[in-house]
Design brief:
- The chain folds into 2 domains: 134 residues, no CATH class; 50 residues, no CATH class.
- With 248 residues, it is α+β, with helices and mostly antiparallel strands.
- The two termini are 36 Å apart.
- The chain is built from 3 helices and 6 strands.
Length: 248
């Protein structure tokens, strides 16, 4: 009995793995047939497996100084205490307003034409000895022509405007705060998800506990969806694998 070739065995193994993964995903989807997508549970973002505390370059810490019989608190940013987020676990509203528009057009045209002629009507009488089919006045004639044209155009426009509540997950040594917010909205059988994360300064938080997204450092903003409509818009697993593997 002939042994199965090694490359054929590998192809069969990859196919079985792909079918197994597709079967797991299909089984999960078949389990939710006729049901709306489930919302994610509310949990502590710092308890997630992939969570890592933010580490940024910090200035040298300053020793606290206390003034007796003084109404002013050392290190305070305001005379009266406000309700803006300032501690781990506090909430603040992030006003997401993202607008990006880019237009670029480039056009290049070049044309060049050359024409050269050379003749020897008189050359010490030797022109009379040339063959009758040869014209001494036009012995050499050359011409050239080249044309090149290029055109490129880019037109892009993106906009996103919404609000999302975020929670303070960490206070950095210089007083800046790390925030993270997640919002899920289910419409029929589709979930729209908005994620906002980054570092904010307490001074940038407005009196109504709102901060603009353009004042968030290291901002991470993601907006997408999951559900039946998103599944239909995505190519099948096999097609995605073939697009990666095939070299042509």
């Amino acid at each position: 009995m002939n042994a199965v070739p090694t490359h054929a065995f590998r192809i069969v193994s990859l196919a079985l793995v792909a079918l197994t993964l597709a079967g797991c995903g299909a089984a999960k989807r078949l389990k939710n047939v006729g049901r709306e997508p489930a919302l994610s549970a509310i949990d502590d973002p710092t308890a997630k497996a992939g969570y890592r505390p933010v580490q940024m370059p910090m200035p040298e810490p300053t020793a606290p100084h206390f003034n007796n019989n003084s109404l002013w608190r050392t290190g305070s940013r305001a005379f009266f205490k406000d309700q803006r987020a300032s501690r781990v676990g506090d909430l603040l509203t992030v006003k997401v307003k993202f607008s990006d528009k880019a237009e670029m057009e480039n056009k290049t045209e070049r044309t060049r034409t050359g024409d050269e002629k050379m003749g020897v009507p008189n050359l010490f009488g030797l022109e009379t000895k040339m063959p009758t089919a040869m014209n001494p006045s036009s012995l050499v004639s050359t011409n050239s022509s080249s044309v090149s044209a290029g055109e490129g155009k880019v037109d892009r426009s993106e906009a996103l405007t919404t609000n999302v509540a975020a929670v303070v997950t960490q206070i950095l040594p210089n007083g800046n705060m790390v925030i993270e917010g997640r919002q899920e909205i289910r419409v029929n059988f589709e979930i729209r998800e908005l994620i906002v994360a980054g570092i904010v300064r307490p001074e940038d938080i407005q009196s109504d506990n709102v901060i603009d997204s353009n004042k968030i450092a290291e901002a991470r903003i993601a907006y997408g969806g999951r559900g039946q409509i998103t599944d239909v818009q995505q190519p099948r697993y096999g097609q995605q694998v073939m697009d990666i593997v095939l070299p042509f």
